[in-house]
Amino acid sequence: MFRLRRFLKGYIFQLTVGPLCKLIEAVFELMIPMITADIIDTGVKNNDAGYVLSRGGLMVLMGALGLCFALVCQKSASIASQGFGTKLRNAMFRHINTLSYEEIDRIGTPSLITRMTNDINQLQLAVAMLIRLVIRAPFLVIGAMIMAFMIDVRMALIFVVAAPLIALVLYIVMTRSVPYFKAMQKKLDRVSLISRENLSGNRVIRAFDKQDYEQQRFDSANSELASTAVRVGRISALLNPITYTIAQAAIIAIVWMGSCYVDSGSLQTGQIIALVNYMTQILLAMIVVSNLVVIFTKAAASASRVNEVFDMQPSVTEKTHKDISPDENAPAVVFDNVCFAYGSGGYALKNISFSVKRGMTVGIIGGTGSGKSTLVNLIPRFYDVSEGSVSVYGNDVREYSFEQLRSVMGIVPQKAALFSGTIEDNLRWAKKDASDEEINKALRISQSYEFVEKMPEKTKKTVTAGGKNLSGGQRQRLTIARALVGSPEILILDDSASALDFATDAALRKALRDETKGMTVFMVSQRVGTVRYADKILVIDNGELAGQGTHNELVKSCPVYREICLSQLRAEEVEN
After folding, report:
1. Which residue among 454, 477, 492, 521 is least crowded, i.e. fewest CB within 10 A of its CB?
2. Residue 358 covered by a domain
């Protein structure tokens, strides 16, 4: 947790004033039993109503002042904890956005969401409790024991025995329960994962009538979380009965021994009541300490999970933030003996070499899992090659800044992702100041113009999260339009027409060919019809380049390509 203290900079005033105010309130609280004893032993004993009222007024004044100091502390704790949480959440979100695909895949989206919400909330609570109670609770315990010694040393020995016993019980209970709190965080990740899968894949679950199965899966994960919480609850349930038993036994001892001392005249009735009050304060303070241990244990587990994200450094980093000069005479993209592996696994791509001239349309085809998407993901440098190099306009992609490299590219990922807002908001991602003419042109090329114009709000239509209020084909076409609005020099379409019918797919390819002169286009597809008229076709088979050339060349020279063609077309269509 100490590693996260940098996010408390700017809140030194609250971190100082808050505990100080709570300390003053605790001083007032320690003085109350002594004033009560004074009222009983002086005012009540002598039947002095004026004295009782004056001392009672002092108690009211101290209570009012204590309330004021408590409110100042509460406000300080709120400002510091919420500010801390806001800074930490912003920093974590910013850091996550610097991570490459590899790191995000490794840690998992559900876990990242849990860490940004539940874990940071737990840390916020810890900061608030740090200001409000960390100083107050131990001070009350120590202060109450000191006050007991000031009243009577013999009676204070009861405190010396009772306080360590209560502390021992707290220690035993906490050491047994702490491991469970850490386990609960992992089980909460599991519940979050299943919840996210069910919410995002709700239509698939219904289509396969898997509601009961998913309910069982969720119930199982939720039951594991609940059973862990119950185990903690059972252990924690022992805390109050045992500590209260010790405290009540101490109070009985105080009353019993105190009565003997009162009879002998060495103690007064009010002092016995004050000692009982101090024992109660010690008990309550110890309970607060135990709760603080739970809170800070959870916070420590959360802090380690948050720090794990901060410690994760991106595998893809920028060498420079400055623009470099592209070679005007160089090919648009060159792969030179490229090999790539995800983590420590085997190669997903092996010995890939090809060159793409500017303005060419390149089709990439191959079986499922052959490495097509992996190949195009290396061009904008979503991943770094394991061996070899990828060059854009004569420079290795690793020499470019991210901004310069990706500013010349329009990328349409395999999964069509739209964001909440309007259609217009989504289309302006690549170019914020895009004119209506540029937007309409992109809509026409992507075959989106017709269905958008039929909508009453047109480009002002609201898009729900993920574009769930649009069909799959509409989402794909709008993501293509979004990439085209920026007039990219290199357009990457990663199987982005899979949800389109053949007629719309053909119209899209024709529009791209006619309206994007000079643009280098990469089209990943499993459809032969999508890639057959490309200037160059790359055939990927099990991560290797099985062939490259035009359709007619590959039909004759590449068995893998010919097999794919024959699986989708008649023999006479393949040859034509």
Report:
1. 454
2. no
| Average pLDDT for 344-353 | 86
Q: Tell me how far apart the alpha carbons of residues 478 and 287 are, in angstroms, rounded to a whole number.
A: 59
Q: How far apart are CA 19 and CA 132, in angstroms?
A: 6
Boundary of a domain, candidates 443, 468, 488: 488
Predicted pLDDT at 576:
62
pLDDT (mean) for 125-148? 88
Residue 326 host element (H or E): none
Q: Which of 480, 484, 483, 509 lies closest to 496, judged by CA?
A: 480
Q: Are 289 and 140 in contact (CB under 8 A)?
A: no
Cβ neighbours of residue 176 under 8 Å, at least 6 residues apart? Answer: 235
Which CATH number do you get for residue 473? 3.40.50.300
Extract the tokens encoding 255: 């009353």
For the stretch 528-571, pLDDT in tens is 888 888 899 999 998 899 999 988 888 888 899 888 888 887 77
Residue 43: per-residue pLDDT: 83
Residue type, 212: D
189 and 51: one domain?
A: yes
Structure tokens at 382: 């979503």
DSSP 344: T
Sheet holding 395-396, edge to edge: 395-396, 387-392, 333-341, 347-356, 544-549, 536-541, 361-366, 520-524, 490-494, 409-412
Instruction: Annotate 377-404 with three-state secondary structure.
Output: HCCCCCCCCCEEEEEECCEEHHHCCHHH
Q: Which domain holds residue 304?
A: 2-311
Dihedral angle over CA of 447, 449, 451, 455, nearest 10: 160
Compute the distance between CA of residue 496 and CA of residue 429 in angstroms, rounded to an integer.
Answer: 18
CB contact at 8 A, 362 and 537: yes
Find which of 5-19, 35-49, 229-243, 264-278 is predicted with most confidence, using mean pLDDT. Answer: 5-19
Quick one: what percent of the chain has pLDDT higher than 70?
99
Determine the average pLDDT of the residues in 154-172: 84
Radius of gyration of the chain (CA): 35
Higher local confidence (pLDDT), 406 or 498: 406
Residue 74's pLDDT band, with cuts at 50, 70 and 90, is very high
Calpha distance 440→449 (Å, rounded) = 7
Q: Is 150 within the bounds of a domain?
A: yes
- In the listed set 311, 337, 360, which residue is the last one of a domain according to the structure? 311
Residue type, 461: K
Q: What are the tens digits of pLDDT across the range 399-428?
A: 998 888 888 898 888 888 888 888 888 888
DSSP class per residue in 77-121:
HHHHHHHHHHHHHHHHHHHHTTS-HHHHHHH-HHHHHHIIIIIHH
- pLDDT at residue 20 greater than cutoff 90: yes
- Return d(Cα 55, Cα 41) in angstroms, integer: 12
Backbone dihedral angles phi then psi of residue 409, each to the nearest 5 degrees: -120, 145
Rounded to an integer, what distance in angstroms lies between the CA atom of residue 152 and that of residue 155? Answer: 5
Q: Is residue 104 one of the residues assigned to a domain?
A: yes
At 107 the pLDDT is: 80
**Which residues share a beta bridge with 336?**
389
CATH number at residue 67: 1.20.1560.10
Q: Which of 540, 422, 442 is nearest to 483 (CA)?
A: 442
